[in-house]
Design brief:
The chain has 90 residues and is α+β, with helices and mostly antiparallel strands. The protein has one domain. The chain has 3 helices and 4 strands; from the N terminus they run H-E-E-E-H-H-E. Strands 1-2 form a two-stranded antiparallel ribbon. The protein has a two-stranded parallel sheet with strand order 3-4. The longest helix has 28 residues.
Length: 90
C-alpha cells in the first residue's frame, strides 16, 4: 500500500516536472527569458519573464498575477498572442 502511494507520487512529480519544462520552453519560444531581481531589502526576490530582445519597437506590457498559483499557469494561453504585438513582462 505504501509502495503504491510512493510510486504514484513519484509519477506525479515526473509529470509535473515535464509540464513545467514544457511551459518554460514555450515561454522561451514566445521570446521571453527568465530573470531574478533582488529588491532593496535583499530579503525579497522577484522572478520575472522579460523579453529576450531588450531593444525592440514594441510597446511594453506588464502582466501581474495574484497570490497563489504560478504565473506560468495563469498566462499560458495569453502570452503567445500578446507577445506578437507587445514586449510582455510577467
Amino acid at each position: 500500500m505504501v509502495s503504491a502511494f510512493i510510486n504514484n507520487h513519484h509519477a506525479l512529480f515526473i509529470i509535473f516536472s515535464c509540464y513545467f519544462l514544457h511551459v518554460s520552453l514555450y515561454f522561451r519560444y514566445c521570446g521571453l527569458s527568465k530573470s531574478v531581481v533582488d529588491l532593496d531589502d535583499n530579503q525579497t526576490t522577484m522572478h520575472i519573464w522579460n523579453p529576450t530582445n531588450r531593444y525592440c519597437n514594441k510597446p511594453n506590457l506588464v502582466l501581474i498575477h495574484g497570490f497563489g498559483g504560478n504565473s506560468k499557469w495563469q498566462f499560458l494561453f495569453q502570452v503567445r498572442q500578446l507577445s506578437n504585438n507587445t514586449s510582455v513582462i510577467k
